[in-house]
Write a structure and sequence with these properties.
alpha/beta, binds S-adenosylmethionine, 26% helix, 6 helices, single chain
Length: 191
């Protein structure tokens, strides 16, 4: 224990890889996804780009090869409470990246879009609503906040990918939503 709380107890790895705007093309991150993604169940990626292994993908950019091309919140709001087993969250990491992305697409940027903290609070609210107990949230960014303990998540793995030079590291977290995973076996198997 420290004055501010418990130390992080989970797995932490730090590895080098070349930077890439397409996060999931970075080899150690691709491996992380493979290792931490549940083999079954509904999985969503609201900011998928072109390289997401999620079951259902979305990206606001119509050129991306995704199932949907909606703003992330609109995409997430289509699904039922507790219906998802895993969700990837890999949004633009800064207000500047959001502005650049929207400008390229000819979209108007609102205050809500550029105030990343406010936008991320709404995204997190959707993740909390959508994931079943025991469901996995994998988040990428410049920090290890993830979805958060106060929202009922337990972080169990962090990957720090450093890129050298003046680049920021890319941080990836895996968290489990607290609670018992639903038993979906047919009742006939349980007797
Ligand atoms: C950091 S990149 C994700 C990269 C992706 N994981 C990959 O490996 O290629 C962020 C993505 O979010 C998309 N995006 C930005 N704002 C969005 C929004 N409001 N709703 C949905 N997608 C958005 C961008 O088009 C971009 O592809």
């Amino acid at each position: 224990m420290t004055a501010t709380g418990r130390h992080y107890q989970g797995r932490f790895d730090r590895v080098f890889a070349m930077p890439n705007r397409e996060t999931f093309k970075i080899r150690p991150i691709r491996d992380f996804l493979e290792e931490e993604t549940p083999a079954e169940g509904l999985g969503l990626d609201p900011f998928a780009g072109n390289n997401s292994p999620a079951l259902i993908t979305n990206d606001i950019n119509p050129d991306c090869k995704t199932d949907y091309h909606l703003p992330a919140l609109e995409f997430l709001r289509q699904f039922h409470d507790g219906s998802c087993t895993y969700i990837y969250i890999d949004p633009p990491y800064t207000g500047r990246q959001i502005k650049e992305c929207y400008a390229k697409l000819g979209l108007t940027v609102t205050m809500m879009d550029t105030q990343t903290a406010r936008f991320m609070r709404l995204v997190k609210r959707e993740v909390v609503r959508l994931l079943e107990p025991g469901g996995i949230a994998i988040c990428c960014g410049y920090n290890t906040m993830g979805i958060g303990k106060t929202l009922g998540f337990e972080m169990y793995r962090i990957l720090d990918v450093y890129h050298g030079g003046g680049h920021y590291d890319t941080l990836v977290t895996a968290e489990r939503k607290r609670g018992r995973k639903p038993d979906r076996r047919p009742l006939s198997l349980l007797v």
